[in-house]
Amino acid sequence: MAGRRYHRGMLDLSRLRALHAVSVHGSVAGAAAALGYTPSAVSQQIAKLERETRTTLLERRGRGVALTEEARHLADTARELLAIVERAETTLEERRGQPSGLLTVAAFASAARGLLPGVLAELAARHPALDVRLTEVDPHLSVDLVARGVTDLAVAHDWDIAPLPAPEGIEQAVIGDDHCDLVVPAGHPFTARAVIRRTDLGGERWVCQPPGRVCHDWLVRTLRTAGHEPDIAHVAEENHTIVALVAAGLGVAVVPRLGTGALPPGAVAVPLEPGPVRRLYALWRTGAARRPAITAAVRTLRAHWTARALGAATAPEGPLPGDSASVRGSGEAARQ
């Protein structure tokens, strides 16, 4: 092979992982957040890969960067290599029979705050050889992050009006149902009533998440179905902000219990019938289903959900990762 020089270690796996993350997230900053690195560390990895491959991989595009055609081909190769590595690591961990190695977890904000801290602490205490790393992500991103191999396990949710997508190669298990309450200011007339119906909700000023979020879409659809046009006075991303605005007497809100925790003085939860319910799931790739780390994490998620008594009287039934009856990501509905 005269005329060609090969460099030992030319395709370094950690650098390929960085390129793959930039490809998935569309930016160096997004890749850094997913990998737990600083943006400068990701940029350095890409720069080293460019030198070693003698190829330009990233081009400036406005304020951001774009992958060159060569980089996209290399990112596809990286995805295949990372999948091979995952299968090998899964086999080794399965043979050891103990949860070990790195387990990356993505969760939406209220689960990351209200459920995951206790879960991660228990996993760390029970399985010292297991290194679990959590990233808080927008809920609509988590399924894609698992499918693309960016994260090993995701905690996601869906509502009846927005079922969770189930792409091929992704398995899922139900963690539990998160019931929602109507939260009103103390002294509101609703606090004197035994139950509130959806038809009673007209004429209220609402505090809600922004358009495009499932909570917002549920509220608008529900009130319009009941014959009311919602008066959304205040918009906030975080459930804690929404509850604080309600406690200040500025409106009413429908909030999932996991998103509220203990209500502050001035805010009261009243029963809404029928009230919305969002279902929480754990998702993982089919190729990693045999990992003891995945099984331990899902089992611990379910146990902590039950312990919080957030509408779950007993642990959710259903298969665990690796069971032949696991819910398949083939478009089959997760709800039974």
TrEMBL record:
Alphabetic keyword roster: DNA-binding, Transcription, Transcription regulation
Domain HTH lysR-type: 11-68
PROSITE patterns: HTH_LYSR
tRNA-binding among keywords: no
InterPro entries according to UniProt: LysR_HTH_N, LysR_subst-bd, WH-like_DNA-bd_sf, WH_DNA-bd_sf
Gene3D superfamilies: Periplasmic binding protein-like II, Winged helix-like DNA-binding domain superfamily/Winged helix DNA-binding domain
Span list, region Disordered: 312-336
UniProt family annotation: Belongs to the LysR transcriptional regulatory family.
Name of this protein: LysR family transcriptional regulator
Species classification: Bacteria, Bacillati, Actinomycetota, Actinomycetes, Kitasatosporales
